[in-house]
Structures are given as structure tokens and as C-alpha cells.
Specification:
Blueprint: H1 2-19, H2 24-35, E1 37-39, E2 60-62, E3 69-73, E4 90-92, E5 106-108, E6 129-131, E7 138-140, E8 153-156, E9 164-166, E10 181-185, E11 187-188, H3 195-200, E12 207-211, H4 220-225, E13 236-238, H5 249-252, E14 261-263, E15 270-272, H6 283-286, E16 293-295, E17 308-310, E18 315-318, E19 332-334, E20 339-342, E21 356-358, E22 363-368, E23 381-383, E24 388-391, E25 406-408, E26 430-432, E27 455-457, E28 479-481, E29 488-491, E30 501-503, E31 508-512, E32 527-529, E33 536-537, E34 551-553, E35 558-559
Parallel strand pairs: 3-5, 5-6, 6-8, 7-9, 8-10, 9-11, 10-12, 12-13, 13-14, 14-16, 15-18, 16-17, 17-19, 18-20, 19-21, 20-22, 21-23, 22-24, 23-25, 25-26, 26-27, 27-28, 28-30, 29-31, 30-32, 32-34, 33-35
Antiparallel strand pairs: 1-4, 2-3
């Protein structure tokens, strides 16, 4: 029994001793590397000549058996945030000494201050993961990357747009047979005419991100006609915020038949859509049977599986394609901030799965009737604002949806009557009916059907009535704008004063309610604008009830020049 115990002790001691070994040449390589770095936050404090075991240093991991360094991770700790140093990036040069790390499999230098990818990068022949993202990289992307044949993930993207990379060819990408994810941004590859063919021939590529890049200016119709345009492996494609001609787009959509996530967001295409000549031919989408998320800058989808289609902030011109009505599973449609024009097809009302519809900030015109909303039973978000639309809905109309949370009809012609159908919506939190031609009185129900209001704007109408007692919950920090109407009478201290911001300017209010100071309510208003009314006489002397008030505008009224003493309680 004693022999067994001794053997176990010796084995355990051997394992323990083995775990604390460090390859000396690799330790020296790291010390030399550190000498050329600026480490303001002292993140590499454990890297010292006195500490002989580099396998215990921070940011390092060694192989359990060979003790060779297999991971170097200098990505900052984002949970530790310093306003002066941001997250403590490391600056300096990637020195040649690092080539001693021949067994490195994982190298993460992201979100630091490195400015160049070294040409000797292919010395790390065992690398499977390489991340330079978030660095202010400049210069050429070295073609030597193509020699790292085990590479699976390569990220040279820059979400903060500090880098400025150049690539004249992507032939090296086609050599990376194991590459599954490639992310690159802020790169000019206008001379890389082989980009499409190179990515096409990377057989394992699943995710391709080329955001904020500048593509070559080619005759793509001629170029793609001689190129097999199918990359069957790619499921994620992002070319958002990039610069290329509109003729490129339909070919980009044919990069793969297996696309699940597609983003061409904010590309600022200057293209025109006509009913007879759509900017995306039908063949562009007909094979994308797996697509589930589509954040596009283009249109014309003939794909029943598509659920999310976002096209905001581009320069798209023309009517909406009729094919939208065929996307029966569409849950979100956002074409806001473009230059679309024409009328809305009534067939939009057949999209029974639609939860979000945003066509704001375009040039749509014509009438929106109940046919446009006929089957939208799941609608929660509706924004038709900043167009030239006329809303014609009968006073007796009952909408098919009952869970609306956000409605913005700013600049739509709704009047003269107040839209009575709003009283059917019990969950509504955002209402904007400004500039909508309403010349009615505030109805008796006056938003009493909802207690979730966070934003209400009915300004710049001709609404004539006394101020309504709209139920507002102070814990929602609501914003209320009733300005530029014809509200008259006295100002009561009611639940309106639970608004964080309350704008009653440019009305014909004449004074404060006699019971203003006797109200049991202590308002939570922080910004109160009563300017350009007809307030006359003395201000009430109970401003201590509005302890949160920070801004009070009383200009252009007829008040006496006596400041009540309670105003001092607000300082």
C-alpha cells in the first residue's frame, strides 16, 4: 500500500511540475514584444523577466501537454471602462519576435491601437482564429494571409470607422479552404476586380461581412455573365454602408442560395424603380428559400419565407413594388427615409402577419383607406408620417388590430374629425397626430382607454376645447405637446402635469384654474411651456407643488409683473 501511495505522489508531482514549465524562446519573444508596447492600464503587469512561467501570464494560454503557447488574447476587458483611456487599449508595433510562437492557434488583438497587419503574419501557420477588429488599421491587407490555410475566422473589421485599409486583390481568400467567417470594413478594394470570384471559390465560407467598403466600378452585367454567381455555402452577407453601383445589387443577391441574413443597409443607392423595370429582377430572390432576415437597400421580393425587410435611409426612388404583398410571412416592413413615391397598393392590407409598418419620410401620396389595413390584425407599430397621404376611415370603423403601441400620422391629412378608432387601442404608448388638419374638439374619451402613454403630440392643428385631463403615469416620464392649437380657458393642475415635458404654447389659454393651488396632485413636470397664450393677471402662488420644474416659459402673455414667492422654492 505504501508503494502505491508513493507512486501516486510521484505521478501527481510530475504532472504539477509539467504544468509549470514554459518554453523559454516563447517567453523571451513575449518580453521583446512587450518592450515595443504602450500599456497605459498595465494590463501586461504579469509579463516580467522574473516570472519564469509564461503559461501563468495574463492573456496567455499554453497547451496542456506541450506547454507551447496556443492563445494570445489582448482584447480589452470591456467591463472596465475609463473615460480617459476608454477600455485601456494597447498601442505599439507587432514585432518580428512573435514568429517564435509557431504553435499559436488563437490570436486576438482586437480593439487596441495597432495600425498595421504585419507581412510576416503567415509565420503563424497553425492559426485558426485571427482578430484585428477595432484597430485603426491602415495600408494594404497582406496577401500572406492566404498562406494560413488552417484559418477559420478572420476579422479585420472596424465598427468605429478608424481604419483605412486597401486591397488590390482577394485571390488569397480562395486559398483559405477552412475559412468560415470573414469580416472586413473601411476598405477600399476598387482595384480588386477578382473579389467576386475569390469569395465564390472559398468553399467553406458561411459569413461574409464587407461593410463600409468601396467596391470596384465594373460593367457588372458583362463581368457576372462570365462568372458562375452561386456560392452555395454563404448564409450571412453584409455589405451595408458600402459604395457600389446599383447594377451590382441583383448579382450580390445571387451570391448564395442559402442566405439567411442579408444586409445592404444604408448604401445610398441612387436608383429608380418603375413598374416595368424593377431594380431587382425576379431571379434575384426566387432561389433564396432560406432567407429569414433581410436588411436591404433594394426591393422586389418574391419570397414567402421572408419575415423582416428593412430598407431605411437610402435614396430609393419610385413606387413600392407590388411583390411586397406576396411576402405573406412578412412581420416587419421598414422603407423609411427614402424617396419612394406614388400611392400605396391596397394589397398591403393582406399582409396578415405584419407587426411593424414604417413608410415615413418618403413622398407617398393618395388615400389610405380601410382596405389598406383590412387584415393587419397583428399590427403593433404604424408610421405613415412625413408623406402627403390622406387618411380616410369612417367614424364607425373598427380596426382589425387591438394591440397597437406606436402610431405616427404626422403630416397626414386626417381631419377635420379626431380619429375615434384610437379609443379601441388599450396598449398605445406613442401617438403623433401633429400637422394633420384636425379642427375638432377633444372627444370625451380623450385617451382614457390607455394608461401607457409615453408620448403624445397633437400640435399644429385647430383643436378647440378646454384642456383635457389625459391620464398620464409619472413613472412613464411622458412627453406631451398640445401646442399651436386653439385650446382655451383656464389651466388646471390635473394629470397633464405628470408629463415630464408639457408644451401648451401658442394656444388661447387665459389663466389658471381657481382650484389650481388646491389640487391634491403634485405635478412631476420638468419642462413647462406656456408662451404665446393670453394668460392674464397674477401667477398662482403654489409653485412648490412642481418641485421637479427646471424650465418655465411664460413669454408673450399678459401677466402682471409680480413674481410669486413660491417660485423661489424651485431653485
Amino acid at each position: 500500500m505504501k508503494v502505491i501511495v508513493v507512486l501516486l505522489f510521484l505521478v501527481g508531482n510530475a504532472i504539477t511540475t509539467h504544468a509549470y514549465k514554459c518554453i523559454e524562446t516563447e517567453r523571451q519573444a513575449l518580453l521583446t514584444f512587450k518592450q515595443g508596447l504602450v500599456d497605459y492600464q498595465n494590463r501586461l503587469s504579469s509579463w516580467t523577466s522574473s516570472n519564469k512561467n509564461c503559461c501563468t501570464w495574463s492573456e496567455i494560454r499554453c497547451h496542456d501537454l506541450t506547454n507551447h503557447i496556443i492563445m494570445l488574447d489582448l482584447r480589452p476587458n470591456f467591463t472596465y471602462y475609463d473615460a480617459g483611456m476608454r477600455w485601456g487599449p494597447i498601442y505599439g508595433e507587432i514585432t518580428l519576435s512573435l514568429v517564435q510562437l509557431q504553435y499559436l492557434e488563437y490570436l486576438d488583438l482586437s480593439y487596441n491601437g495597432f495600425t498595421k497587419i504585419p507581412n510576416f503574419i503567415d509565420s503563424f501557420t497553425n492559426l485558426e482564429y485571427l482578430n484585428f477588429s477595432g484597430n485603426p488599421l491602415i495600408g494594404n491587407i497582406p496577401s500572406q494571409l492566404g498562406n494560413i490555410t488552417k484559418l477559420c475566422i478572420l476579422d479585420v473589421s472596424d465598427t468605429m470607422a478608424m481604419s483605412s485599409l486597401i486591397s488590390n486583390s482577394f485571390k488569397w481568400v480562395s486559398h483559405l479552404s477552412n475559412l468560415t467567417i470573414f469580416k472586413m470594413s473601411s476598405t477600399n478594394f476598387t482595384k480588386a476586380i477578382d473579389w467576386f470570384h475569390s469569395f465564390k471559390t472559398a468553399p467553406s465560407l458561411l459569413s461574409l461581412h464587407l461593410s463600409n467598403c468601396e467596391f470596384p466600378k465594373l460593367d457588372y452585367d458583362s463581368y457576372f455573365s462570365h462568372t458562375n454567381s452561386s456560392i452555395n455555402s454563404i448564409t450571412n452577407l453584409d455589405v451595408s454602408r458600402s459604395i457600389f453601383g446599383s447594377t451590382t445589387v441583383s448579382h450580390l443577391l445571387n451570391l448564395s442560395n442559402n442566405l439567411v441574413d442579408l444586409s445592404l443597409y444604408s448604401n445610398n443607392f441612387n436608383v429608380e424603380v418603375t413598374p416595368s423595370n424593377s431594380i431587382i429582377p425576379h431571379y434575384s430572390f426566387q432561389n433564396l428559400k432560406s432567407l429569414r432576415r433581410c436588411n436591404l437597400s433594394l426591393i422586389d421580393c418574391n419570397n414567402n419565407s421572408l419575415e423582416i425587410l428593412n430598407l431605411p435611409h437610402n435614396n430609393l426612388i419610385g413606387p413600392l413594388p407590388r411583390d411586397f404583398a406576396r411576402i405573406l410571412n412578412l412581420r416587419e416592413l421598414d422603407v423609411s427615409s427614402n424617396k419612394f413615391n406614388g400611392t400605396l397598393q391596397e394589397s398591403m392590407g393582406t399582409l396578415s402577419s405584419l407587426e411593424l409598418l414604417d413608410i415615413s419620410w418618403n413622398s407617398f401620396s393618395g388615400v389610405v383607406s380601410q382596405s389598406h389595413l383590412e387584415k393587419l390584425s397583428k399590427l403593433e407599430y404604424l408610421d405613415l408620417s412625413s408623406n402627403s397621404l390622406t387618411i380616410k376611415l369612417p367614424n364607425t370603423w373598427v380596426p382589425p388590430f387591438h394591440q397597437l403601441q406606436h402610431i405616427n400620422l404626422r403630416s397626414c391629412m386626417i381631419g377635420p374629425h379626431f380619429p375615434s378608432w384610437l379609443q379601441t387601442q388599450s396598449n398605445i404608448s406613442y401617438i403623433d397626430l401633429s400637422y394633420s388638419g384636425i379642427s375638432d374638439t377633444i372627444p370625451l374619451w380623450s385617451f382614457n382607454t390607455t394608461s401607457n402613454l409615453r408620448y403624445l403630440n397633437i400640435s399644429f392643428n385647430q383643436i378647440h376645447s378646454s384642456l383635457p385631463n389625459i391620464p398620464l403615469e409619472s413613472n412613464h416620464f411622458p412627453i406631451v405637446d398640445l401646442s399651436s392649437n386653439r385650446f382655451h380657458g383656464n389651466i388646471p393642475l390635473n394629470s397633464l402635469f405628470n408629463a415630464t415635458m408639457l408644451n401648451l404654447s401658442n394656444n388661447i389659454l387665459t389663466g389658471f384654474d381657481l382650484l389650481f393651488c388646491n389640487s391634491v396632485l403634485n405635478g412631476n413636470v420638468e419642462v413647462l411651456d406656456l408662451s404665446n397664450n393670453q394668460l392674464f393677471g397674477n401667477l398662482p402662488n403654489c409653485w412648490f407643488r412642481l418641485q421637479n420644474l427646471k424650465f418655465l416659459n411664460l413669454r408673450d402673455n399678459r401677466l402682471f409683473e409680480v413674481i410669486p414667492s413660491s417660485i423661489a422654492s424651485l431653485y
